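Milestone M4 deliverable, item 7.
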Amino acid sequence: MLPIIPPPKGFRIFYSPNSELLLVYRPNGMRYLLTFAIICLLAWILFCIFIATLLITSFILIQDYLISILTFIFFFIPLVMYFFAAKIFNQVYIILYFFLAKASFDFRFDCLVFNEKLGSFKEKKQEIRRSKIKYIQQVKTSGFKGNRFSSWGLLIKTTHQDYHLLAYQSHDKIQWLGKIIAAWAKVSYLPSLK
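Output delivered:
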């Protein structure tokens, strides 16, 4: 059994008979990002209502079908549907991620099974053989040196490929998880400087 220090916020520890350890992670601490995403989504909805109201009133006041139809085709569709669609999908993904995301690390006797879910929409499962792991490294995923909004991820280097786990997390969470995986795999852990 692995020695476990108390986990950071968001991690839960379980023990099961067919694995050495099971860690389950749910995202937290993203309240500002979640608030920003909800505000952006509401602003986009209000903007769409404003544009639709503008088009409807211009249609009623002008009563020129050609101008209203052309305005709708050349203004509303390209601007709202194309330009803002990517932004909205991003904001919806952030909101869904905050409420539905879940990652699990199943430390079995011969392999690490990493499973990442976003509700029932998306699932990513990776199986990493214990004997193939060379080292574990903490890597920076965003931000600049000394930036308080910097984030980190975990790189597992194996003999055949690299695995990137849990990007855009805090330094302490990734460091804790990296040390746990390194102790389980009996390999070195390479921390990143804050």
